[in-house]
C-alpha cells in the first residue's frame, strides 16, 4: 500500500481557454469578484485520463459511442464491461478496481448496478494566481455556412492571454484501506507522469497549457497538511500585465519551512521542474527531477 502524499502543481495557460463554462457561452470559468480564472477537478482529471489511455491503460470514465453512433450512458457502458469480462454484479467492484486505473485512484459512481467507489486520490478545483483578462475573438473560417453562400462563416471564441494556476491534490491511504483498494507506488507514479505529460500533450485551438512545477510530499505516516500551498508565485510586473513564464519566479521558502517543521513525518519531497521556470530557495534535501 502506497503512503499518503500531497501534490501541488503550478501550471500556466497562454492564449487559451483553460476551462470553458458551457452554461455561459463557453467563456473561461472565472470569479467575477476577483477576476481569477477557475478550473474544475474534472478538467484536470480529463488531461490525466487521456494521457493514461495514450499509454495503454484501461480507463473507465471516457466518452464512448455505441454501434448506433450515439454516446453511451454509464449504464450501457457498465453492461458492456460486464458482458465482455463475463463478470457478475457482485464481482463488478473488484473487477473495476483491478482493471481500471482511474477507478482505482479517482473512484467512480456507477448508476446501475448502484456502486459508489470513493477515490483515494482527490483533485481540487484550481484558481489562477493572477486576475486574468478574458478576450472575445472572431475570424473567418475556410468554409461557407451552406451551399450557395458567397462568404465563409465567422468563428468566435473567448480566450485569456495568460493565467498561472495552482492545483492541489491528495492521496489518502486511509481512504484506500477502508475500501480495500490496493494502491501501489506504480499507480501513483503513473498519476504523476500523466499529470505532467497530460498537460503537455493535450493541445487544441482552446487548450495551450504547460506544467511548470510539481511538488510531491510523501509522508512516512498518515498525515495531511490539507492544502500544501507553500509555493509563492512572484511576478516581475503587475499581476494583471503578466503574459509569459519568463516574468514569473517561484519561491519555495515556505515549503522549506514546512519541511523543517514536519521532517520527522516526511519521507521524501520531490520537485518536478520545467527548464524554463525560475525557482528560488530550492534546497538540496529535495529530490529534483527536470522534465
UniProtKB/TrEMBL annotation:
InterPro entries: Cas7_Csh2/Csh2, CRISPR-assoc_prot_Cas7/Csh2. Pfam families: Cas_Cas7. GO terms for biological process: maintenance of CRISPR repeat elements. It comes from the Archaea. This is CRISPR-associated protein Csh2.
Amino acid at each position: 500500500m502506497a503512503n499518503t502524499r500531497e501534490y501541488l502543481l503550478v501550471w500556466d495557460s497562454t492564449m487559451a481557454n483553460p476551462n470553458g463554462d458551457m452554461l455561459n457561452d463557453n467563456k473561461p470559468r472565472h470569479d467575477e469578484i476577483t477576476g481569477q480564472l477557475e478550473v474544475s477537478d474534472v478538467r484536470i482529471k480529463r488531461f490525466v485520463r487521456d494521457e493514461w489511455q495514450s499509454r495503454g491503460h484501461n480507463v473507465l470514465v471516457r466518452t464512448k459511442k455505441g454501434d448506433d453512433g450515439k454516446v453511451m450512458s454509464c449504464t450501457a457502458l457498465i453492461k458492456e464491461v460486464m458482458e465482455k469480462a463475463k463478470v457478475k454484479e457482485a464481482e463488478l467492484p473488484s473487477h473495476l478496481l483491478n482493471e481500471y486505473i482511474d477507478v482505482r485512484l479517482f473512484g467512480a459512481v456507477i448508476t446501475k448496478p448502484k456502486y459508489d467507489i470513493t477515490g483515494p486520490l482527490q483533485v481540487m478545483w484550481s484558481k489562477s494566481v493572477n486576475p486574468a483578462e478574458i478576450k472575445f475573438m472572431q475570424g473567418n473560417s475556410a468554409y461557407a455556412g451552406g451551399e450557395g453562400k458567397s462568404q465563409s462563416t465567422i468563428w468566435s471564441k473567448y480566450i485569456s492571454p495568460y493565467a498561472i494556476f495552482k492545483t492541489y491534490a491528495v492521496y489518502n491511504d486511509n481512504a484506500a484501506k477502508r475500501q480495500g483498494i490496493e494502491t501501489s507506488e506504480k499507480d501513483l507514479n503513473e498519476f504523476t507522469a500523466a499529470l505532467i505529460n497530460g498537460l503537455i500533450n493535450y493541445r487544441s485551438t482552446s487548450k495551450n497549457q504547460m506544467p511548470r512545477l510539481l511538488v510531491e510530499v510523501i509522508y512516512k505516516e498518515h498525515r495531511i497538511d490539507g492544502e500544501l500551498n507553500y509555493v509563492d508565485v512572484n511576478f516581475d510586473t503587475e499581476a494583471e500585465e503578466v503574459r509569459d513564464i519568463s516574468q514569473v519566479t517561484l519561491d519555495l521558502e515556505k515549503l522549506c519551512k514546512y519541511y523543517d517543521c514536519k521532517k520527522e513525518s516526511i519521507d521524501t519531497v520531490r520537485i518536478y521542474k520545467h527548464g524554463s521556470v525560475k525557482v528560488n530557495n530550492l534546497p538540496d534535501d529535495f529530490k529534483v527531477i527536470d522534465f
